[in-house]
Amino acid sequence: MHAKQRAYLSLVVWIAIVLTVGGGLGSLTKSEINTWYTTLNQSALTPPNYVFPIAWTILYSMLGASGWLIWQEVFVAKLNVIKTIYISSLILNLSWTPLFFHYHLTGLALIALGAMDILALTIIYLTYQKMKTVSFFMTVYLAWILFASYLNFYIWQYN
User: Fold this and answer.
1) Contact 110, 150 (CB under 8 A)
2) Inter-residue contact 43 to 151 (CB < 8 Å)
3) Helix or strand or coil: residue 7?
4) Tens-digit pLDDT profile for residues 95-143
5) How do the domains of the chain map onto residue ranges?
6) What's the CATH number for 3-158?
7) Model pTM score
8) Three-state DSSP class for 61?
9) Of 107, 98, 113, 95, nearest to 33 (Cα)?
10) Rounded CA gap, 63 and 86, in Å?
């Protein structure tokens, strides 16, 4: 296998891992979505439930590609910091689903989202000059999690 083929294969693996873990956690909370979540007072801006798996499939693919790009990089200032922030952001992201849907800890989930917002913004800032694709993917991700922060805040505030 040529180096370029191995690189593309590793990209697919990164995306598949992030999609599998994120999708797996999402599927574990499906019963909570159909029971607890539907009983909550929700913002008028809350999209229909079918939008979330579509959005998260796109976002997890971008997160997987971002991780791959970060780990391909060699000559970027603060690369270890970027890697640490990326992993921390993923851990927080994956913790949000059980915090919110399984344990119904909407306030703690909101704090996790706030930290995710800050970490995503930090990655955007640190990658903007040298890793434009990562910065772009993280900007799209940040836009969504800011919206998710609003939705989570609304639920925390009105339930």
Assistant:
1) no
2) yes
3) helix
4) 999 999 999 999 999 999 999 999 999 999 999 999 999 999 999 999 9
5) 3-158
6) 1.20.1260.100
7) 0.94
8) helix
9) 98
10) 9
